[in-house]
Amino acid sequence: MMPLRLLMAGALAMVAGCASTDGAISTTASARTTGEVFAGSFTDTKGQSHDLKGVLSSGKPVALVFWQPWCGACIAEAPTVIAAHKRLGNDMAFYGVVSGPDQSVDEASVAKAMFDTGMTYPTIRDRDLRLTKGLGVEIQPTIVIIEPDGTVAYQAEAPPAEWH
User: Smallest Cα–Cα separation from 62: which of 74, 50, 70?
Assistant: First the structure.
């Protein structure tokens, strides 16, 4: 397995795409990546359960891609994320994250966007906003990469440069 620090080396220096941030990591997020943020399981759009804490404890980093089907920038960056998943998916777990309670998320639009973009990784629903708030995500798209020890290695509004 390729070390995450090696994968992320270029990402911390430069962020490509439409991000308005410089890839700086939120100190709030890095302080709250384990415990209640990842406790329990998350259900994906196909009804499958995912234990993010378990994935991290197995030694695999996790990439969380926060997106919404109405977000043009999210849809525009999808091919880059999909290509990264195809290249790095054996060494890093990828999850899309659609935030919001059931009454505020149109599941049919989520399914259509996933189909239209050819998304190759599961999309989990953050219905109680535990991930969104716990990681300090305020805008979408946002990508958060967490190392197995729970440290936030990357958090920005665009994919890391080496994903392009």
Answer: 50
Tell me which H or E stretch contains 81.
Answer: helix 72-88
Whole-angstrom CA distances from 19 to 14, 74, 147 are 11, 11, 22
How is the chain split into domains, by residue range? 32-159
Residue found under tokens 């999309």: 123
Helix (H, G, I), strand (E, B) or coil at 88: helix
Cβ neighbours of residue 28 under 8 Å, at least 6 residues apart? Answer: 136
28 pLDDT more than 70 = no
pLDDT in tens, 46-100: 999 999 999 999 999 999 999 999 999 999 999 999 999 999 999 999 999 999 9
Q: Nearest-CA neighbor of 99 among 70, 67, 64, 52?
A: 67
How does DSSP classify residue 98? E
Of the options 3.30.70.20, 3.40.30.10, 3.40.50.1000, 3.10.690.10, the CATH number for the domain spanning 32-159:
3.40.30.10
Do residues 134 and 142 touch, judged by C-beta distance below 8 A? no
Phi, psi (rounded to 5 degrees) for 146 = -115, 130
pTM: 0.81
Q: What letter represents residue 70's amino acid? A: W
